[in-house]
């Protein structure tokens, strides 16, 4: 069997892995680009999606805004300090979801093996689908062309033989770019890369690696799995593999949701129990409605508090059975909140997540009834 140029089988990694064709498609400044598409007055100007006053944060930034250091999750007041000409527009999530549905319909034209990561990005396995197109790179080009023609937006794509490298590749030529990392190139590409650029290595892990003298993929490659396990536990094998350009994880189509959550940022810091409890009740109500809509229930409830200064703490409780009803979730959530009192300092943000999810249709576990009572 012949293989596309630059994607031939090599000894690096397992043969079946080297034969895979994985794409990572990532929309360019998705929310902000939609706003610029729909409002010509915003084109070519620094745009941030989010609330531009009070305790607002940037949800997304156009590339014109990123030049000034404006990024998602940046507090709005700091974004305006960096870019006084920044234009804030309120988010329109119904529009973003509709465009995302268009994009995923394009993906499905090329493969059924799609693993969404967010509204604006996904992994695609085109191992079995690329031959009619000549190469996996040609499939990526066709997808990018269809996205542009059907939505008026641009996407960047990475092509490689595993998920880790495809994700790295998609960021190499943003915006509106395409980059290929072949099996022959994979290990060398990773060797020169700073560990903070690795998808899956967060800020805390980066600091720990730097403290151990691990700054690049080549540094990480010097460590054995047992040595890495002493410092990074169950993640040791993953770090060992990616340092060598290996990632055996499959693209998981219809990947089950792991958690549901929602949160509220207060206009001013809050320390009073009554106000925090009332806000938490509203959050639980919204979360329970989301569980009902998605036909999900969960066993673990996690409360998040963010204080002034952005210090964040979480505490969790696990229930005996999966639950989805507000009258079940609220007492658990309030119990966790009460455990934080007396507060060390006022609270800036309050959030709640439910995880260890099961589908209501999965009768292998008893589900606490409530919102689902009317369906049986």
TrEMBL record:
Top-rank taxon, per record: Bacteria
Record text on cofactor binding: Binds 2 magnesium ions per subunit.
GO MF annotations in UniProt: DNA-directed DNA polymerase activity
Species, as recorded: Bombella apis
Alphabetical keyword list: Cytoplasm, DNA damage, DNA repair, DNA replication, DNA-binding, DNA-directed DNA polymerase, Magnesium, Metal-binding, Mutator protein, Nucleotidyltransferase, Transferase
Catalytic activity: DNA(n) + a 2'-deoxyribonucleoside 5'-triphosphate = DNA(n+1) + diphosphate
NCBIfam families (UniProt xref): PRK02406.1
Name of the featured protein: DNA polymerase IV
Predominant location: cytoplasm
